[in-house]
Amino acid sequence: MSSSAASSDREKVVSKLPGWLRQNLKIRAAQYGIDIQSAVEEGIRDWCNLASVVSTVDTAGSDSFATFLPDGQWEEFRQITSDRKVSLIQGLAQSVQLWLDTNPTPEVQRPAITRRIVVCNQKGGVGKTAITAGLGEALAESADSLHSVRVAKALTKAIRASDMHVVDTDSDEDPLEIEHLPGPGLRVLLVDFDPQCHLTNQLGAAPLSMNGDSLTNHMAGDPKGELRDLILSVEDDVFHDRLHLLPACNDAFLLDVRLSAVRAREAALERALAPLEADYDVIIVDCPPSLGLSMDAAAYYGRRRDNEKPGQSGVLVVVQAEDSSADAYELLTTQIDDLRADLQVDIGYLGIVVNLYDSRRGYIATSSLQGWVDIKDPRVVGLIGDLKEQKEAVRMKKPLLSYAPKSQQAVGMRAMAREVM
Ligand SMILES: Nc1ncnc2c1ncn2[C@@H]1O[C@H](COP(=O)(O)OP(=O)(O)OP(=O)(O)O)[C@@H](O)[C@H]1O
Ligand SMILES: [Mg+2]
Known about the structure:
- It is a single chain.
- By secondary structure, this protein is of the alpha/beta class.
- It folds into two domains: 2-102; 115-420, 3-Layer(aba) Sandwich (Rossmann fold), CATH 3.40.50.300.
- 40% of the residues lie in helices and 17% in strands.
- Strands 8-9-7-10-4-11-12-13 form an eight-stranded mixed β-sheet, sandwiched between helices.
- Helix 13 (363-375) links the parallel strand 12 and strand 13.
- The two termini are 43 Å apart.
- The chain binds adenosine-5'-triphosphate and magnesium ion.
- Residues 124-130, 194, 196, 198, 289, 355-356, 384, 386-387, 390-391, 394, 409 line the site of adenosine-5'-triphosphate.
């Protein structure tokens, strides 16, 4: 145990703490968004002010722990440990435990109205399904552990360049550090709204049988049971039963035909999913690559409801940094504008996600990314690279964020989820 003078008004203190206590401290400080040194300072201050000794903390296996405390605090603390006849390590462990006890794990912030996120683009293969899954996984990750998050460097550069009206996606300055943050811990339902059943297959589930019940039946007003009974949990330690999937069925190929006979058909998805909303904080709909009645029903489901704040629910558009994506985007936004006008509803955008990005493709990629950033409303909320982990996770039928939790794609998905939240 030693202390040495450091810059400004804090001094570096080196002592010991057991690993489990260090880990709890790190997570809890991140949950409250404060520095570890401030938490330790508060804990020591409160411990010094206690009227009587608290229970002993098991300090077996302690090892090195360094932090910065206000000048003089360590000396005063050392004196009090000596008066109380406890070792410095025990006193420090009790102080940290005291801080943890007075700052319990915060409650997860749940939205008052279940948020509905409609992931769409009628252009095929842009990554709607990958983004739906990655977003849902990122939102469901545990709030009791830390996960790596980083905004893609190319995105911040493109945004900065757009503010300065200069295209500069090549310079390498100012890399953003990876942050380690608690997960949002939200209860998420992924809805596979695509007859191709890609999301269902990707997460290792089986498409629903054509003879049984399905979302299509519920939307067509012909249910064969409770929709809730079709839902599966995506099993994984980091999701702890918070990530659920409503699998698709090939019968969704007939959805547009069946919807044409349904009253107020744009509300059909809402009518089907409404009974499930109480169980979830977020419902994410993975749309098929088409524009039609089913897309109308999905966009309508994402409209802003009475008393819902803007930016909570809406459409998330997945695009690629290439020219053909821009035409597809125009078509999609025209359909959504028409729907807004025809039905007099407020359908908002939650952002644009540029997926499968590879700056090595040169000017087409970098200038297209700049083009998406320049739209500004909606703004680019995510930039996900074209990397092998996504394809591997699909092949392994595992969630990307548990298959490769530290991959660039995973840290990008978490950054995107935080932008959308
Ligand atoms: N960021 C990425 N890096 C590498 N591969 C990716 C990435 N995103 C998606 N892919 C792969 O690209 C293919 C198409 O992705 P995905 O199925 O998510 O697109 P989609 O828009 O949902 O397609 P569809 O229009 O058919 O529904 C898949 O094989 C997927 O694994
Ligand atoms: Mg898809």
